[in-house]
Amino acid sequence: MSESKWKIQWLGHASLWITSPAGTQILVDPWIEGNPKFPGTALPDAVDLIAVTHGHSDHTGSVVGLAAKHKPTVVAMVELTMLMAQQGVEKLVGMNIGGMFQFKDVQITMVEARHSSSYEVDGKVQYAGDPAGFILQAEGAPTIYLAGDTAVFGDMRLIAEIYRPEIAVLPVGDYYTMGPRQAAVAAGLLVPKTILPVHWGTFPGLTGTPAALQQEMLIRGSDSEVVDWKPGDIFE
């Protein structure tokens, strides 16, 4: 029997449109309006789930508008969901590190990230709980690790041991997150089959690239495939 597949489209910066094997439509960290790397992709007619790793505006910029239009379930750190509720977001699932949530055919687990998180409500910047990553699992499909904005950290070994992700979505741009050297170390800890690099090339300070990551991985002798994609490209 053939393996079920995900469809993952990069919408620029850290935004992703993921279709599960059963057709569940998922947006990750949607930032559409104002995103200089948004490829102009026509978004799905129905959005079932929005997964938000942390509160920064380059990851949450379109959440409120999309939630008003599509009425999806929005999953995020519990403190962040409390702030989103103040802006009228209705169907919220507030999680915390280590927790799992079953949504249709997709099992979503919140995992650690090393970053920061704040969110603006009515012009006031507020603490939005810890940043996070997500593990996405569906029956018969490869496991996806969405690292969110993070530096490399040693407990990525535990993520590998517990969840064995085959696809790792890693930030590589540097400055605000891991750069290529740290991401290569992360790849060594996670041992995924495939790496999808995000959070690079959006602004001048984000100098890391997939090519630089590939070079660092060659130095370390890693066998993981680095997908050299551009906004709008689809990985299946």
Walk me through this protein's architecture.
The protein has 236 residues and is α/β, with parallel strands linked by helices. It has one domain: Ribonuclease Z/Hydroxyacylglutathione hydrolase-like (Metallo-beta-lactamase, Chain A), CATH 3.60.15.10. Helices cover 21% and strands 28% of the residues. The chain contains 6 helices and 16 strands. The protein has helices spanning 57-60, 63-70, 78-85, 156-163, 180-190, 210-220, and strands spanning 7-10, 16-19, 25-28, 49-51, 73-77, 92-95, 100-103, 106-112, 118-121, 124-127, 132-137, 144-146, 167-171, 194-198, 225-226, 234-235. The strands form 3 sheets. It has a 7-stranded mixed beta sheet with strand order 6-5-4-3-2-1-16, covered by helices on one side. Helix 5 (180-190) packs across helix 6. The protein is globular, with a radius of gyration of 16 Å. The two termini are 17 Å apart.
Percentage of β-strand residues: 25-35%
Low-confidence stretches: none
Q: Helical amount among residues, as a percent range?
A: 10-25%
Number of domains: 1
Q: Report strand order across the widest sheet.
A: 6-5-4-3-2-1-16
Give the strand tally.
Answer: 16
* CATH homologous superfamily designation: Ribonuclease Z/Hydroxyacylglutathione hydrolase-like
The assigned structural class equals alpha/beta
Chain-averaged pLDDT = 97
Question: What is the CATH domain class?
Answer: Alpha Beta
End-to-end separation: 17 Å
List the helices and strands and how they pair.
Blueprint: E1 7-10, E2 16-19, E3 25-28, E4 49-51, H1 57-60, H2 63-70, E5 73-77, H3 78-85, E6 92-95, E7 100-103, E8 106-112, E9 118-121, E10 124-127, E11 132-137, E12 144-146, H4 156-163, E13 167-171, H5 180-190, E14 194-198, H6 210-220, E15 225-226, E16 234-235
Parallel strand pairs: 3-4, 4-5, 5-6, 12-13, 13-14, 14-15
Antiparallel strand pairs: 1-2, 1-16, 2-3, 7-8, 8-11, 9-10, 11-12
